[in-house]
Amino acid sequence: MKSENGNSTRRMPIGVIRGGSLESRDDLVVVEEPLEIRLAGLGEPGPGRPIAITMRTPGSDTNLALGFLHGEGLIRSRRDVASIRESGTNVVRVELAANVPFDFARLERNFYTSSSCGVCGKASLEAVTAMLPRRTVDSMARVSAELLCSLAGKVRPAQPVFQGTGGLHAACLFDAQGNLLEAFEDVGRHNALDKLVGARLLADALPLSACVLLLSGRASFELLQKAAAAGVPVVAAVGAPSSLAVDLADQTGILLVGFLRQESFNVYAHRERLR
Fold first, then answer.
1. Is residue 121 part of a domain?
2. Domain with 155 in it: what CATH number?
3. Residue 107 counted as domain residue
4. pLDDT for 13-38, tens place per residue?
5. Is 108 within a domain?
6. What string of H, E and C letters represents the secondary structure of the chain?
């Protein structure tokens, strides 16, 4: 699978134990490389100022950068971006439109970019909800249990690189009828969602108020943060949610489903969105 910066997979020699014997063979592994996101004001010369570095699978890097900036509340729409381009290897430069302010000192603190940030739950919730465009998702969307269960069988087909490597997460977006709109893979689950949100931002298709987001793994706080910022009313995860993810879903009006299977799932927040 080709990406903007080369291949997202690489073939490597490995050893395999079979019946007590060591055999040599080639295996396909996922590429993981750093991506630096740089930010500049309108008309600002030079390479811009580095605000974040994330380890990602190369591909859709401009989408990833835009999704990251949107999730952190720095941009709201395509109109907030004057230009975006790859600037050398593993670097994306984003130039903000006029009248889009940003606090570089705040950016340097890296926000809440990992589950191990060490910030207490109450402070995290308050910080995130304060920067959301709305305190709750602006949607009257309701979905059936049958529709959600039907999505469980659509995850693997949307993960072509995972099927060859077993090493990627996916974020999949569906419409209210269960049709797949977009899917992105990445070694980082947050990166996969950033790529998806960035692609919808470029298409001027935000907020995602009539959509269902399906996560291939667990539902963490940072993923619910990004979903809430994008206006997603329904989030379903193949794995488990964290307690803080449940709290954020409850506070922002998101129907949160975990352990999604073809015949069952758990409901953690806003079951009234089920019909």
1. no
2. 3.40.140.10
3. no
4. 989 998 889 999 888 888 889 999 99
5. no
6. CEECCEECEEEEEEEEEECCEEEEEEEEEECCEEEEEEEECCCCCCCCEEEEEEEECCCCHHHHHHHHHHHCCCCCCHHHEEEEEECCCCEEEEEECCCCCCCHHHHHCCCCCCCCCCCCHHHHHHHHHHHCCCCCCCCCCCECHHHHHHHHHHCHHHCHHHHHHCCCEEEEEECCCCCEEEEEEECCHHHHHHHHHHHHHHCCCCCCCCCEEEECCCECHHHHHHHHHCCCCEEEECCCECHHHHHHHHHHCCEEEECCCCCCCEEEECHHHEC
Output the pTM of the full model. 0.88
The contacts of residue 248 (CB under 8 Å, 6+ apart) are 125, 128, 129, 221, 224, 225, 228, 254
Total number of domains in the chain:
1
Closest CA to 180 of 197, 157, 205, 163: 157
Q: Give the domain extent around 263.
A: 145-273
Tell me whether residue 117 is one of the annotated catalytic residues. yes
In a domain, 164, yes or no: yes
Mean pLDDT, residues 161-190? 86
